[in-house]
Design goal:
Mean pLDDT of chain A: 71
CATH class of the largest domain in chain B: Alpha Beta
Number of helices of chain A: 2
Number of domains of chain A: 2
Strand content of chain A: over 45%
Shape of chain A: elongated
Radius of gyration of chain B: 23 Å
Order of helices and strands of chain A: EEEEEEEEHEEEEEEEEH
Number of domains of chain B: 4
Mean pLDDT of chain B: 88
Number of strands of chain B: 22
Distance between the termini of chain A: 44 Å
Distance between the termini of chain B: 62 Å
Largest interface: A-B, 18 and 25 residues
Strand content of chain B: 15-25%
Structural class of chain A: mainly beta
Low-confidence stretches of chain B: 456-500
CATH architecture of the largest domain in chain B: 2-Layer Sandwich
Oligomer: heterodimer
């Protein structure tokens, strides 16, 4: 399992493999409070040290996505974790109201072209759109075959296909750009 | 009813308990010493608290420090595991005094059964056969001499508060009595803080059979049959199996019944083990009772289908037992090999150090209870056990084959282990035909331990038992193997050599 985590000491992102004995640490917001989260890459366990307490709280991550928030040493961490009784819960650390720059970033994102990225490593079986096509949210863009399954990739929003990198028969990795969807108004 | 369980232990048992705690929907709190900062139990639990210090005395045996950890963690129950403070009445009382549940017996029944002399007397009054002996603490040397004349030789002098094979002396002649008595009293005082000793007949070449018992708070009790722990080295168990092929079913049910009767008489609550020493299948004598979960409990879980930790926690919550004696049955056979970081060829010398590469056995009916991983450093401060390999199969013969298969899958690179010893044990005709006793290993050491294992380790071979394969390799190939630092590469080469 691979996940991205920001190395606080080096202020840059590093890729960790489970089994790679390097620890990462970052500040996140939990219930509006800033907390240090240490991640043990081997066990995929994140540990919060409660302020003023000796109690370390362990969170077992099943999936993990770490995003650095603009301009600060703060991070937003989303994923799934398991708790007692085999309960699973979705967590979103760092989405506190005071997370600086976050709102601006999200607003800026809206005006940009929306990228459609491959959610998996696999093979493009079929491309259902052409450059310049007008698409509606949910419309089929392409089909990617991975692990004996066909997966439909659909447009995230209404708009026009601005760039199209996916070609039938091509092998793609997780995160590869397939196409971008731009606002209709921008085209006209 | 409690919600948050602090596990006052370390290593594999802390992890074992935390797993069941999680399944029950409860929260777990781990405690860890500085030497255990990288141990798996710390990260596995829902919460963790550091115990500053490295030695057992500073950390896992430090009652005030643990009481503070219980307070800081908000735990409302404590599981003691085995060893450390699991049979310490002072700790149990301290836990109860702050209104926290202790998952185990009350201090009074712990005292009544855990102490060797009072335990023996209680067992005797309930019809449990006991070894002929002094019926209590010895007053002085003259008292011992009087008993020696009645009991005869060989006899054994034991510390009343002892355990784990420490604080006992075997005496084979009258002129050895004085020295043995004095040493034993001195050891009893320094190791266990209690100078009382007693004596009993020493049974040469016995089997060690023990019964698992379980009691609730409502006067119900069952036994979950027996385990055979005859393979021992200086009173330390190395290998256990269940059931015991040594006992007849009638004897099994009779001993189990009296063990339950004695537990009920002591108002015992929780899990416990009644240990017997057997001269013959018909002549089994009570030895001692352990008032905690034991290392070898998984073999009982495998043959009965009962999660003993779960039942232990349930009865501590005040629930009634979920089954009667008639609901329990033995299904198949189970064996446990203790994987210790020890060099069998060097008198089982423990070896701390870093595990460079590690692969746990898996596959059908194989369980590996362990806290180690590749990159883990075995601390020198605690015992050398790094895992327990447990297998199940339908009968003893097929169970041996399965154990051999599982042992061959285990790979520990960086420290020697007892796995190679267990492989030879599985092949030994005496073990297969059950012609063994607790002193057997010491007698058959040369059959079970190859001196050239050391050669294999000196050459820093990645695989356990690789030395067996090495003996077939000529010197030039051996040099080539020695120069290889890549564990996987060497493993592949050895496999190739085995095939050719």
């Amino acid at each position: 399992m691979r996940y991205r985590v920001f190395d606080k000491s080096k202020e840059k992102s590093v890729i960790h493999n489970a089994g790679n004995a390097r620890a990462g640490g970052c500040d996140v917001h939990v219930d509006g409070q800033r907390r240090l989260l240490e991640i043990d890459p081997r066990s995929m366990v994140g540990t919060f040290v409660e302020p003023g307490s000796r109690l370390e709280r362990n969170v077992r991550f099943q999936s993990l996505q770490i995003e650095r928030l603009a301009g600060e040493a703060d991070f937003r961490i989303q994923g799934e974790c398991s708790g007692s009784g085999g309960r699973w819960s979705w967590f979103d650390f760092g989405a506190g109201p005071d997370a600086p720059g976050q709102k601006e970033r999200r607003a800026a994102k809206k005006d940009q072209d929306a990228a459609i990225r491959s959610p998996m490593t696999g093979k493009v079986l079929q491309v259902a759109v052409k450059k310049g096509d007008v698409v509606t949210a949910g419309q089929l863009v392409c089909i990617i075959e991975a692990m004996k399954m066909e997966n439909k990739i659909v447009a995230p929003t209404d708009g026009v296909i601005q760039k199209l990198s996916a070609t039938a028969g091509a092998l793609v990795s997780s995160g590869d750009m397939l196409a971008t969807v731009g606002p209709k108004a921008a085209k006209k | 009813m409690f919600k948050r369980v602090l596990i006052a232990n370390r290593g594999e048992i802390a992890l074992r308990v935390a797993r069941t705690v999680r399944e029950m929907g409860l929260e777990s709190v781990a405690v860890y010493s500085d030497a255990d900062a990288g141990s798996m139990h710390r990260k596995f639990a829902d919460f963790a608290i550091r115990l500053p210090g490295r030695t057992s005395k500073e950390t896992y045996l430090n009652i005030p420090l643990l009481m503070q950890a219980i307070k800081d963690s908000g735990a409302d129950a404590v599981h003691p595991g085995y060893g450390f403070l699991s049979e310490n009445q002072e700790f149990v009382q301290a836990v109860l005094d702050v209104g926290v549940t202790f998952i185990g017996p009350t201090p009074s029944s712990m005292a009544a059964l855990g102490d060797k002399i009072s335990g023996r007397n209680l067992m005797k009054s309930c019809g449990v056969p006991v070894v002929p002996g002094s019926e209590g603490a010895l007053k002085d040397l003259a008292d011992l001499e009087k008993h020696a004349k009645e009991i005869g030789f060989p006899m054994i002098i034991k510390a009343s508060g002892g355990g784990g094979g420490r604080g006992m002396r075997v005496v084979r002649a009258m002129n050895e009595l004085k020295d043995a008595y004095e040493v034993c009293v001195r050891e009893a005082q320094s190791y266990f803080g209690n100078p009382q000793v007693f004596c009993e007949r020493y049974i040469d070449a016995p089997h060690h059979v023990e019964f698992q018992v379980l009691f609730d708070q409502h006067g119900n009790g069952v036994h979950l049959f027996e385990r055979d722990c005859t393979v021992q080295r200086r009173h330390q168990k190395l290998f256990e199996e269940a059931p015991s092929a040594f006992l007849s079913h009638e004897q099994r049910m009779r001993l189990g019944e009296v063990a339950v009767k004695a537990g009920l008489a002591a108002k015992y609550v929780g899990v416990g083990t009644v240990e017997f020493i057997c001269e013959s299948p018909e002549k089994c004598y009570f030895m001692e009772m352990n008032t905690r979960i034991q290392v070898e409990h998984p073999v009982t879980e495998m043959i009965t289908g009962v999660d003993l930790i779960r039942e232990q926690i349930r009865v501590a919550m005040g629930h009634k037992l979920r089954f009667k004696q008639s609901d329990l049955h033995i299904r198949g056979w189970s064996m446990e090999a203790r994987i210790n970081a020890e060099a069998p060829e060097k008198e089982f010398l423990p070896a701390a150090g870093r595990i460079k590469n590690f692969q746990a056995p898996a596959g059908p009916f194989v369980r590996f209870d362990s806290h180690v991983y590749a990159g883990y450093t075995i601390p020198a401060e605690y015992d050398s056990m790094i895992g327990k390999l447990i297998v199940w199969d339908e009968n003893r013969e097929s169970c041996i084959v399965r154990m051999q298969r599982a042992l061959s899958e285990l790979m520990v690179d960086g420290v020697p282990t007892t796995a190679k010893f267990h492989r030879r044990l599985m092949e030994h005709p005496d073990f297969r035909s059950l012609e063994i006793h607790t002193g057997w290993l010491e007698q058959k050491k040369n059959d079970l331990i190859r001196p050239d294992w050391e050669l294999g380790e000196a050459a820093s071979l990645p695989l356990d038992g690789a030395a067996v394969a090495l003996s077939m390799v000529d010197q030039s190939q051996q040099d080539e193997l020695n120069s290889s630092t890549d564990a996987w590469k060497s493993a592949a080469m050895l496999n190739g050599l085995r095939l050719s």
